[in-house]
Specification:
The structure is a single chain. This protein is an alpha/beta fold and 197 residues long. It is built from five helices and eight strands. The protein has helices spanning 33-47, 100-107, 119-132, 159-170, 180-196, and strands spanning 10-14, 51-56, 85-89, 111-117, 136-145, 149-150, 156-157, 176-178. Helix 1 runs parallel beside helix 5 (180-196) and helix 3 packs parallel to helix 4 (159-170). One of its GO terms (molecular function) is hydrolase activity. This is Cysteine hydrolase. Keywords: Hydrolase. Residues 10-160 form the Isochorismatase-like domain.
């Protein structure tokens, strides 16, 4: 278990929608990711920390994420409360075509904890941009998942391989990759400090 601290991080849950349950996506890794995200969400809610749900509204005709398809709905494990902020995107990165960056800066939310789907697509795109924009980012690796993918040479790569390579691309340059238990431990320190105060 690694040790780190943050002050009042914002939780960014990316594309936790039923679209990814469609068989067309193929095999995935981290079958427990939804429960991990639910645990993170519960901890944020308990402490009253800021959080944003990102929803992907695809404009592609055959996408399971289209607004007129059942898959556009959020997964039940991470269903937003009526009072919680939902931001809609139409590209891979949650920063493109949205007011996410301006909102984060306006409210002083410069520390981000990210989880969601898929690791190699919207999660990686969002984390890369967040890092480039100067935000401090922690990525909950067990709160993310992706799918099998065929590489440029025609070789099938497992979801676990694709996931691991995305994390390798991100860690240390755009974010700090860590386990959800480490994030929850750091949150516990925030709660303890607030109690002592």
């Amino acid at each position: 278990m690694s040790s780190f601290s943050f002050r009042a991080p914002l939780l960014l849950l990316i594309d936790m929608q039923q679209a990814v349950d469609d068989p067309c996506w193929g095999p995935r890794n981290h079958p427990q990711a939804e429960q991990v995200c639910a645990s993170l969400l519960a901890a944020w809610r308990e402490l009253g920390l800021p959080l944003i749900h990102i929803r992907h509204d695809s404009t592609e005709l055959d996408s399971t994420f289209r607004p007129d398809r059942p898959g556009n709905a959020f997964k039940p494990e991470t269903m937003p409360l009526p009072s919680e902020m939902v931001m809609v995107k139409q590209t891979n990165s949650a920063f493109i075509g949205t007011e996410l960056e301006s909102l984060l800066r306006e409210r002083g939310w410069l520390e981000l904890v990210v989880a969601g789907v898929s690791t190699s697509n919207s999660v990686e795109a969002t984390v890369r941009m967040a890092g480039n924009l100067g935000f401090n980012v922690w990525l909950a690796e067990d709160g993310c998942f992706t799918f099998d993918k065929t590489d440029w040479q025609g070789r099938l790569r497992s979801a676990e391989e694709v996931h691991a390579m995305s994390l390798a691309n991100l860690d240390g340059e755009y974010c700090r990759v860590c386990a959800s238990e480490d994030i929850l431990s750091a949150l516990g320190n925030i709660a303890a400090a607030a109690h002592r105060a």
